[in-house]
Design brief:
CATH topology of chain B: Rossmann fold
Shape of chain B: globular
CATH topology of chain A: Mth169, Chain: A
Structural class of chain B: alpha/beta
CATH class of chain B: Alpha Beta
CATH architecture of chain A: 2-Layer Sandwich
Helix content of chain A: 25-40%
CATH superfamily of chain B: Class I glutamine amidotransferase (GATase) domain
Strand order of the largest sheet of chain B: 2-1-3-4-11-10-9-6-7
CATH superfamily of chain A: Phosphoribosylformylglycinamidine synthase subunit PurS
Largest interface: A-B, 12 and 20 residues
Structural class of chain A: alpha+beta
Oligomer: heterodimer
Radius of gyration of chain A: 16 Å
Strand order of the largest sheet of chain A: 2-1-3
Largest sheet of chain B: 9 strands, mixed
Number of helices of chain B: 5
Number of domains of chain A: 1
Amino acid sequence: MARYVVDVMPKPEILDPQGKAVLGALPRLGFAGVVEVRQGKRFEVEIEGDATPESLAEVEQMAQTLLSNPVIEDFEVRTA
Amino acid sequence: MKVGVVTFPGSLDDVDARRAVTFGGHEAVALWHGDHDLQGVDAVVLPGGFSYGDYLRCGAISRFSPVMTEVIEAAGRGMPVLGICNGFQILCESHLLPGALIRNDHRKFNCVDQRLRIENTSTPWTSAYEQGAEVTIVLKNGEGGFVASEDVLDQLEGEGRVVARYLGDNPNGSLRDIAGISNERGNVVGLMPHPEHAVEDLCGPGTDGLGFFTSLAAVAFA
């Protein structure tokens, strides 16, 4: 089984209200000195067979078409 | 005209949209997300709601539902398509419209009678309005912040494709107070506020939304 991880993050220039909410909550819990939090998504994808350049390319295609919106998000694919 | 209203799993405003279509003088046709069939309609409304539970991203999964293949193809041929709220999100995810809609900058769900200015009356959905008309239409969303790159925003402004703009305080962080836009041809319009909730005096803030549904008639008889 080939396992891949896809990390999707809001682009740096796009406002991340969820990250801002977490950033606001941390000092209330006593975590001092946190200056920034960005929240993204992690996908774990399993594909039949061994990891190959073809299956990697396929996961990149999935990330491009469905898992991320390239207008507002960046993604990274790696083998797990 | 026959105006189709698509029901996705999780659509909320499909029935209101069909009612508004009827008030606009048209025959409303219920379309199902799982069918590769537009049933011969002349225009399509993608209604508001939380299709597919807003899973992944708002509109991201709906965009690949069977009926959207037909909607995208028909939009390419010039069929009028109006996406309201979640429908606007689906149109952006489909790349029929540029940009994207993200969570409101204040992080709260917003439900208000919103003042708007109609800035483009050349689309099939807005031709019943006077240029620059100021109207009040219900706005209710959690992810209504319109974002796009500066280049895209400049292009939208330059080509007159900002269809409606928020007046007063910006309700959701939309860049340049944008409430609605059109595609290059003008037949595809996305709008965050809900004109289908402003078509009768009994409920809602008045009837200012009716123009979105009567505009089509002017197109039909033009």
